[in-house]
Specification:
Elements lengths: L1 H17 L6 E2 L6 E8 L5 E8 L5 E7 L8 E3 L9 E2 L1 E7 L3 E4 L9 E4 L5 E6 L14 E8 L7 H19 L1
Antiparallel strand pairs: 1-6, 2-5, 2-11, 3-4, 3-7, 7-8, 9-10, 10-11
Length: 175
């Protein structure tokens, strides 16, 4: 059963290599809180995952290395994000074959496998050896980007209008 899952993931990953679509992780709503949750790693090289902070002129905030993080470790990104705002990450190989990949760099897009079928729970896998080398399994670093959207709260004016409408309906029934 495990083997079928691994083979299925490998064939899915292989199919996505030729299509180097933008792996951008996009906020699905306004005022989204973003949590990055480590899933795991099956890599020999040591790599460091960082978030590209748009508030600090694109400086990177290191989250974890693939050999120091444990499944379930999480980091809440500071601030909130607007609907359609891009969330970018960098993965730097710091021991083994030295290299760096970014979701913001078009020439690196093939290094990332992104499953955004649920836009509130995006799963990202990284291949740590520059393609076409490597094994294309995208399990060298895996993490989950969880978007929590602020509840839709009606504006105070809308609530007042709704209340006034209710009063008018009540008066009309009494008359």
């Amino acid at each position: 059963m495990v083997m079928a899952g691994i083979c299925g993931a490998a064939s899915m990953a292989s199919a996505s290599i030729a299509i180097t679509e933008d792996p951008g992780i996009i906020s699905p709503c306004n005022d989204a809180q973003v949590e990055v949750i480590w899933i795991g790693s099956d890599a020999g090289y040591t790599g460091e995952l960082s978030w590209v902070n748009p508030l600090e002129n694109g400086s990177n905030i290191a989250l974890w290395t693939n050999h120091s993080a444990s499944a379930g470790d999480s980091f809440v990104l500071p601030g909130t994000f607007a609907e359609g705002q891009r969330i970018d990450f960098v993965y730097e190989i710091i021991s083994g074959g030295i290299d760096i990949f970014s979701t913001a760099n078009e020439s690196d897009w093939g290094q990332f496998s992104v499953d955004a079928s649920d836009p509130h729970n995006v799963i990202v896998g990284i291949e740590d050896i520059r393609l076409p080398g490597g094994d294309s399994d995208f399990n060298d670093a895996q993490f989950h980007v969880k978007f929590t959207c602020a509840p839709n709260v009606p504006a105070p004016g809308a609530m007042a209008l709704l209340g006034a409408g209710g009063l008018m309906m009540g008066r009309r029934r009494r008359a």
